[in-house]
Amino acid sequence: MRNVRRILVVTMLLSLALHSVAFAAVQDVDTKQMQTILKENSGNPDFVLLDVSPPAAFASSHLEGAISLPANDPNFEANLQNLDKSKTYLVYCHRMNWTPKAVAVMTKNNFTNLYASSEGKAGWMEAGGKVVASGPYQVDTQQVMKLIADNKNNPKFVILDVSPEPAYARAHIEGAISLAARNPDFESKVQQLDKEKTYLVYCMGGRWTPEAVSLMQKYKFSHVIASKEGLSGWMQAGNKVVSGQ
How far apart are CA 245 and CA 155, in angstroms? Predict the structure, then answer.
C-alpha cells in the first residue's frame, strides 16, 4: 500500500512539475522588458517578432522587423505550422486583443519559447517606441462586402465616406458617415474620431481615399482599411446605395 501511495505522490509531483515547465515556457513582458529583449536579440536569426493583429492594424503600423500572422485568421493554427518551433517568439498585437489567443494556440502546438507582450503596440508607442507602416490595408469590392456583412452589428466598425458632401448626398453605402476629405476642417475632425475603432474608408472612385487614409495614419489610427474600387466598384457589383444626408 505504501508503495502505491509513493507512486501516486511521485506521479502527482511529476505532473505538477511538467505543468510548471509548460507554463514557464510563456513569459509575459511589459514594454520596458520588451525593449530590452529586442535590443538583446537584434540580428539574432533564432528570434522572431510576431505581430498577431488583424491585417489592417499591421498595415497601419507595426514594430520594425515584425512579421504578420493574424490570430483572427481562421487558418491561424494551420499557418503556424510554417514557423520554426525551435525559435524564440515575442508575440504582440495592438492592445492584447489577440495575443492571449495566439499564445494559447502556439503553446498547444508545442512552441516552447514564447514571450507575450502585456502592453502591446499601444504601450510600445506610448513609451515613444518606433513603429513603421506598410501602407493602408486595401480591399476590393468583394472584400468590402464581406467586411460590412461581418461587422453589421459591430459598434467599433465605421464606414467612412470621404467624398465631397454633394457626392455623398447623391449616393453612399448605407450606414456610412460623411467626412469630406477636401474640406479645410477635415484634419481637425479626423482628430476627434476614436482611434481605436476600425475604419473602412472609401470615396466615389478613389480620388480622396488615399489622402484621407494618409492623414489617419499620420495620427496613428490603429485600424484603417482602404477601398480600392470605391463606391463606383460597389455599385457596379449591384450593391445597394442610399441618398440624402
Answer: 20
Task: Name the residue type at position 127.
Answer: A
Residue-wise pLDDT for 46-90, tens only, equals: 999 999 998 877 877 789 999 999 998 999 999 999 999 999 999
Give the torsion sign (CA, 34, 38, 40, 44): positive
Give the residue among 48, 24, 28 at the shortest CA–CA distance from 38. Answer: 48
Residue with cell 498547444: 108
Please give the C-alpha separations between residue 239 and each of 165, 171, 173, 217, in angstroms, as whole numbers.
21, 12, 9, 29
C-beta atoms surrounding 103 within 10 Å: 23
106 sits in which H/E element: helix 99-108
Q: What angle do CA 75, 26, 28 make, to 5 degrees?
A: 105
Q: Cβ atoms within 10 A of the Cβ of 178, count?
A: 16
| Rounded Cα gap, residues 34 and 90, in angstroms | 8
Alpha carbon distances (Å) from 173 to 72, 100, 161? 26, 35, 8
| Nearest C-alpha neighbor of 134 from the set 224, 37, 71, 201 | 224
Q: What's the confidence (pLDDT) of residue 136? A: 64
The identity of residue 104, as a single letter, is A
What pTM does this model have?
0.58
Residue 245 one-letter amino acid: Q
- What burial class does residue 4 get, using C-beta atoms within 10 Å of its C-beta: 0-12 exposed, 13-18 middle, 19+ buried? exposed
Spatial CB neighbours of 10, under 8 Å, sequence gap ≥ 6: none
CA–CA dist 141, 234 (Å, integer): 6
